[in-house]
Amino acid sequence: MSTLANRTVIKDVTFDNKISIHLSSGDVLTIPYSYTPKLKSATKDQLKEYRLIAGGIGIHFPKIDEDISLKGIIQYKLSHELLAS
Asked: Is 73:44 a contact under the CB 8 Å cutoff?
């Protein structure tokens, strides 16, 4: 049985060459700014004004009206890493 206490969630987001998603498990997932068209066209200042939503399973960027989910990020990473191998 899964509980909220042992669920991996987003804890922080940082912006360098890529967007880094820091998880409660200690892992870090990175996605390119081209992950969505709105992220790609946004400035770093617009992106830095994010908030975690749904208990850390998503990120909302109010300045560009964009939401992304941890589930979507993981699916993206899996599909792109499988294509690269």
From this structure: no
Per-residue pLDDT of the chain (85 residues; tens, 9 = 90+): 344 567 899 999 999 999 999 999 999 999 999 999 999 999 999 999 999 999 999 999 999 999 999 999 999 999 887 665 5
| Residue range of the domain that includes 80 | 4-84
Q: Are 43 and 53 in contact (CB under 8 A)?
A: no
Which amino acid, 7?
R
Instruction: Give the strand pairing for 19-23 and 10-15.
Output: antiparallel
CATH code where residue 63 lies: 3.30.2020.40
Residues 1 and 68: their CA atoms lie apart, in Å, by 26
